[in-house]
Write a structure and sequence with these properties.
With 493 residues, the protein is mainly alpha-helical. The protein has a single domain, classed as Up-down Bundle (Amino acid/polyamine transporter I). The protein contains 22 helices and 4 strands. Helix 6 packs across helix 17. It is globular and about 60 Å long. About 1% of the residues have low confidence.
């Protein structure tokens, strides 16, 4: 006869899990509802996000491909519409760095391993395709984010889906619907950020540090709370300063951590360079093979799309909160810049992780998954690579922490008022949760927060469809202004 242990006999983490589990299971079952397709499971939310990216790509005339070079020029500072006197507080590069720091995280290492193990090398092909399509959705989100942002009296900026849903839909005569959707979005984001944006990050950062320092024999054993406290203190030193401070830190941190990971991945690829043609062949062949791993080509497609959408967050709208703070007079300029985010996150970083795993054959290893599989792939070339890998993973976790603190703070401010007290209060709560997350096994809470984060794509994608014509007009207006400016420059010469 089964029985439940008395509540007082349970540990704190067990009590939290027991309380949250029924709620988390129900929310997750709704948000991540899957249907069987071709021998594998298709989460409908993945189809919802990929379809939105495809619609945006076609509606904007493949701006993800045609506008890529222009996006690079804007990031380099070649934009006559982004001057020190323009509204906003940060540069295009700082906005991109902040947004990339929120998407490039431990999932780029562990999640890719899961996708390749489940869908085979072919998942990489569909992951890249989904990343390219996601660039167009980011263009729409961040163009709208800047267009409908609110510049506060002190010069700070509040933007993102909460604002383009409420103000943008009001312009279409849908004020009531817009306000309701904005409130739902902000509520889910503020709550979800308290798990996936900090608890999960500090928990995984501690786990990685413990692993590389001896595992069960690590000197860190029993001091997860102390690790979490240090992690939170470092995060607090950045977070309390607001978006300006966050942008300055991420502008330095993102190039370093991405560069470190890039170098390590290229080392592994270089060692196995002779196998690169075969790996690329396996990726292409696996993407279209009727039979094979987890449903063959269809299984590879689903796993690739799932990893890409979960990684670059195209369709969630969260990164438009950071992009909205950019200094510019033309909303579409940041739309172009934002396209680089899925490219860096998915097409570059996730693809490098996939190649490392495929070339080393780590996805064939039994008993390994996630970050453990990625670590084994690097260690197979040189055992010492696990140390810089751990450093990169820790930096990924930290950068994600500080970016998501800003997203959650802005969501809370939208609901409770954009006052300093509300922002500070949420930041303190966020940091306390960071400490708790490092020392507890909050699996069910993380599942709940993950579901809440992805729930925001429901109102956001509806808003994207309704406001897509607005984003297209902004793109056309910017192109006309840019062409006129260039003609004037040539005439002046």
């Amino acid at each position: 006869m089964a029985f439940s242990p008395p509540l007082l006999a349970l540990s704190l983490d067990e009590r939290i899990n027991q309380a949250v589990r029924p709620i988390g299971e129900w929310v997750s079952s709704v948000i991540f509802y899957s249907v069987p397709v071709g021998g594998t499971e298709l989460p409908l939310i993945v189809a919802w996000l990929v379809l939105a990216s495809l619609v945006c790509t076609v509606a904007l005339g493949f701006v993800n491909l045609r506008g890529f070079g222009h996006a690079l020029r804007i990031v380099r500072g070649d934009s006559p519409f982004s001057t020190p006197s323009s509204p906003g507080t940060i540069t295009h590069f700082q906005a991109l760095s902040t947004a990339v720091s929120g998407t490039v995280g431990i999932g780029n290492m562990s999640g890719v391993a899961v996708a390749v193990a489940a869908g085979g090398p072919g998942a990489t092909f569909w992951m890249i395709l989904a990343g390219l399509l996601g660039m167009s959705a980011k263009f729409v989100e961040c163009t709208l984010g800047v267009k409908y942002r609110r510049v506060n009296p002190d010069g700070t900026v509040s933007g993102g889906p909460m604002h383009y849903l409420s103000r943008g839909l009001a312009d279409l005569g849908l004020s009531g619907l817009g306000k309701a959707m904005a409130a739902v979005y902000a509520l889910f984001l503020a709550l979800g950020a308290l798990g996936i944006g900090n608890m999960f990050q500090s928990n995984q950062a501690y786990a990685i540090a413990q692993t590389v320092t001896g595992g069960d024999a690590s000197f860190l054993n029993g001091y997860a709370w102390a690790y979490g406290l240090v992690f939170a203190a470092l995060g607090g030193a950045v977070i309390i300063g607001g978006i300006g401070n966050i942008a300055r830190v991420t502008a330095r941190l993102v190039p370093f951590m991405a560069g470190l990971y890039l170098i390590m991945a290229l080392v592994v690829i270089g060692v196995h360079f002779s196998g690169l043609p075969a790996a690329i062949g396996a990726i292409v062949q696996g993407a279209f093979t009727p039979e094979g791993v987890a449903g063959g080509a269809l299984g590879a497609l689903i796993q690739g799309f799932r990893r890409a959408t979960f990684s670059n967050e195209a369709g969630l709208g969260s990164s438009s909160i950071a992009h909205s703070a950019v200094r510019t007079d033309q909303p579409a300029t940041e739309g172009y810049v934002a396209m680089l985010e899925p490219f860096i996150d998915t097409v570059v970083v996730c693809t490098l992780s996939a190649l490392v795993i495929i070339l080393t054959g780590a996805y064939h290893l039994e008993g390994l998954s996630g970050i453990a599989m990625t670590s084994a792939a690097f260690a197979s070339v040189a055992p010492w690579l696990v140390w810089p890998l751990a450093l990169a993973a820790t930096l990924f976790a930290f950068s994600t922490l500080i970016s998501w603190s800003y997203y959650g703070t802005k969501a809370a401010a939208y609901l409770l008022g954009d006052s300093r007290a509300v922002q500070l209060g949420y930041s303190v709560l966020f940091l306390i949760a960071t400490v708790i997350g490092a020392s507890l096994d909050l699996s069910d809470l993380i599942d709940l927060s993950d579901a809440l984060i992805f729930a925001v794509c429901i109102p956001n994608v509806i808003g994207i469809y309704l406001l897509l014509p607005t984003a297209r007009r902004e793109m056309q207006r910017y192109r006309a202004a840019y062409a006129a400016q260039r003609r004037g420059r040539v005439a002046g010469d």
